[in-house]
Amino acid sequence: MSTHTGTLPAAGDWIRGISVRQPWASAIVAGAKAIENRPQPWSWRGLVLLHAGLQIDRPALRVPLVARTIRGRDLPTGAVIGVARLTGCHQDPDGSPPCTEWAEPGRWHLELADVQELALPIPARGQLGPWKPTEGLVAQILQQLPNLRP
Length: 150
What we know:
18% helix, single chain, disordered N terminus, five-stranded mixed sheet, alpha+beta
């Protein structure tokens, strides 16, 4: 029995997951952080599940930009908390100003757009690099975001 609806392809064909430590994951779903810093480039383009990893970057909680952005928000861990569209990946040229205040020099910047926060976090296991979600996880996402399409 298929768990996806209509003409959606299998989950592994049109959507990936990205695991991000808190509070960075919450800054993304808050709509403020449109760049995710990574050590290597990603070739995937399309929808990504925003998974809050199990670890919290405690020093980041004291960064004023982060503190302002996440004020009053829960910091769920080990759960998918939103969906975004990964539209590109770049590095800032040496010596140039960062593309955004969230960009780290020397890192690859994943460009995120169309961020949608889930009303209810969905417990899930993440992993490093882009990962393929299960059909069951995608079905749970579609319960909250029924119009989500590739």
